[in-house]
Amino acid sequence: xxxxxxxxxxxFLMEAGHHEAAWRLPHSNPRADFxxxxxxxxxxxxxxxxxxxxxxADGPALIGTGEFRPPGQLEPLTLxxxxxxxxxxxxLIATVSSTYNEPYNLARRxxxxxxxxxxxxxxxxxxxxxxxxAANFGLDDRPGHAERYARxxxxxxxxxxxxxSWESEAVLADRATGRYxxxxxxxxxxxxxxxxxxxGPLNVERPPQGHPLLVQAGSSEDGxxxxxxxxxxxxxxxxxxxxxxAFYADIKARTRAAGRDPDGVIVLPGIVPYIGSTEQEAxxxxxxxxxxxxxxxxxxxxxxxxxxxxxxxxxxxxxPEFILARPKLEGSQSRSDLIIDLAVREQLTVRQIISRLGGxxxxxxxxxxxxxxxxxxxxxxxGGAADGFNIMAPALPSGLAAFVEHVLPILRGKGLFREExxxxxxxxxxxxxxxxxxxxx
Length: 441
Known about the structure:
Layout: E1 8-13, H1 36-48, E2 53-56, H2 76-84, E3 91-97, H3 103-116, E4 121-126, H4 131-134, H5 145-163, E5 171-174, E6 179-181, E7 191-192, E8 197-198, E9 213-216, H6 221-230, E10 233-236, H7 241-257, E11 266-275, H8 279-291, H9 295-305, H10 321-324, H11 333-346, H12 350-357, E12 364-368, H13 370-382, E13 388-391, H14 398-413, H15 426-430
Parallel strand pairs: 1-2, 1-13, 2-3, 3-4, 4-9, 9-10, 10-11, 11-12, 11-13
Antiparallel strand pairs: 5-6, 7-8
Helix pairs in contact: 2-3, 3-5, 5-6, 6-7, 9-12, 13-14
């Protein structure tokens, strides 16, 4: 492949699919969430297509009430460890909360996944916006937004030091002398900060990638500043090219201001593609999903975003005035702003809003032919709105298979996506270097 800038594609996997009603389709597996064979099939399909990585979302709480959508999921680091043994090249990115973990245990688990996968692990760092998650950890409410990010910042400082606490020359394994490791190359942290006190070193040697790839998914002001300091990839949600391009420029500028190379931060919006051989066929597919939705579920999810009760909404009315006034939220401020912007721009009723959120929860949904979807991806990529995309198939595996069969050949024909893997690690897929060890030299 030429030296032309490359498109990055991740397969964002979610049980039977991203659409909330995907499990109800006749060809879907309604028990896909806990069926390892289903996940292996998806992982191998994405790897056969040479995707950069698999991505798994997560949160330490039940999703909704369980009445209208599968409410649980396998813990992603455990699942990705299993998938690492069924694949050999594709990256493995897990969402894990910095708010409800401790640096030592999580740094150890992530380093372990990087070792067993041969350098394919990535960590999507979230600060956990839901109050229901806090209740599972002995808290009356989640910590405030700014505090969660302050804690995450210190968490990352400690985790990076722990991954660096073994120099590459630390292990001698010298049978003749009986010396296994050089203690001078194992580094005690003695970290004492506002949130953590960690002695170190880690009891797992430095990961093959140096650090697992660091990913961030928050689009608030705090989230973007955090990404500028730490992220190597940013997952984001936008419904228009203009807003995606503004976010892209903002992230690159903040990264430069933080003293880092903007090209070292890969910006990846989500796209939910409804693919048909004709526009009419694609629209019919989207309607099939929409007709299977349960409005009550959508109302509950909308209420959760705005930290209110479903009863404040009227299906055939606009959003209430107090929501349009954009009250300060402790949860997902950026996602609530996205929904308000969408509702105002297109003058949507609540019923129409929850329909639009049913497939991608605020990510960009596109209904069209393979050529139209490919053209849109290329326009965002070449126009400065994305370095690639998270492919969020509305149904799995069918939607991912359709993308691989019909859209990828167009992107490859334009010379924008790899024919074969050229590296073995996730960092190599992204064109990113192994971080220097802060304790070496």
